[in-house]
Amino acid sequence: MTSAAAPILLEARGVQKHYGKFVALGGVDLQVRANTVHSVIGPNGAGKTTLFHMLTGNKTVSGGKIVFDGHDVTHEPDHRRVRRGMARSFQVTSLFPTLTVRENLRLAAQGVAPAGAHDPWHPPFGRRARAEVVHGVLKRLGLERLSDTPSSNLSHGQQRRLEVGMALAARPKAIFLDEPTSGMGIDDLDEMKDLIQGLKEEHTVVLIEHNMNIVMNISDTITVMQQGRVIAEGKPDEIRSNALVRAAYLGNMITGGKA
Predict the structure, then answer these.
(1) Mean per-residue pLDDT for 193-201?
(2) Is residue 68 in some structural domain?
(3) Helix (H, G, I), strand (E, B) or coil at 65
(4) Distance (Å, whole) CA 50 – CA 26
(5) Positive or negative, the Cα torsion across 125, 99, 148, 175?
(6) 195 close to 189: Cβ distance less than 8 angstroms
(7) CB–CB of 41/224 below 8 Å?
(8) Which UniProt keywords apply (predicted)?
(9) CA 106, CA 125: separation in Å to the nearest integer?
C-alpha cells in the first residue's frame, strides 16, 4: 500500500492555541496517514512543538478539533491519548538516570496500564516485568549489551535511542518524535535515521526534525510551518522545489544538501 492510499490515523482541523493575545497556532490542518513518516518542519518559533503539545494532549487547544484512530480526542488529557495509542519523545532527553536501560523500558511498558504501573509492594516479576516487550525493544535499539547499564552512563546518542525505545515500549500506534537527533554526532545519525525509518513497518511516525538530510531521506510527507500556520505540504521532492518554502525557511539548505 502506498502512503497516499493508507488510511488517515490522525487528523487536526483548524487547531488553534492562544496565549493571551499571542497566537501560537492560527488554525492548523493536518492529516497523518497510517504507517508513514510525516515530518513537520519550519524555523524556530513556527509552532511545531506547540502543535505536538496539542496533538498529544500535553496542553489544551484554544480551538479546532483533533481526531485519532476514529476518536475525537480534542479535550482528552495526555494519559488517555497514551492509552489510545500515542507515545512521544521530547526535545530534552527525559530518562530515569539512576535506573538501567532495561528498567527504563519496563517502566514505560508498564505505564500504559496505570492501574498496575505503580505498585511498590510487589517486585516486577512475571507479567509485570513486561519482559517480552522490553527484550524486543532492546533488540530493535541495538542496546542489548547495555541493558543493565544505568541510563546516565550511556552516550548522548544512546540516550536519544533509549528515549525512542521508551515510546516504543508503550506499543503505540503513533510515535511523536521531537528533534530525536538533537545534539547527536555524525556516527549516531545514521543509526537513528535507520531506526526511525524502520518504525513505520508497525507504527506511524510524526517527526519534528531540523536535519534536512534526514527529513528528505525518510519522510513520506512533509508539512512546513511558519508563524503558527501551515504554508506547504507534500512529498520531499515537492517541498524541495517549492519556492515559497525555500524563501521562508530552507534557503539553499536542501538544494546544497546541508542541514
Answers:
(1) 92
(2) yes
(3) strand
(4) 11
(5) positive
(6) no
(7) yes
(8) ATP-binding, Cell membrane, Membrane, Nucleotide-binding, Transport
(9) 11
pLDDT of 252 higher than 50: no
C-alpha cell at 73: 480526542
Locus of grid cell 506547540: 50
CATH classification of the domain holding 25:
3.40.50.300
What cell does 170 get? 508503550
pLDDT at position 185 is 82
177 and 113 in a common domain:
no
Residue 142 contacts residue 161 (beta carbons within 8 Å): yes
Residue type, 176: F
Q: Are residues 64 and 112 in the same domain?
A: no
Q: Is residue 32 part of a domain?
A: yes
DSSP secondary structure code for residue 247 in this structure: I
How far apart CA 74 and CA 57 sit, in angstroms, is 8
The model's pTM is: 0.87
What backbone torsions phi and psi does residue 132 show, to the nearest 5 degrees?
Answer: -65, -45
CB of 15 within 8 A of CB of 54? yes
Domain around 165: 95-171
Q: Is residue 148 assigned to a domain?
A: yes
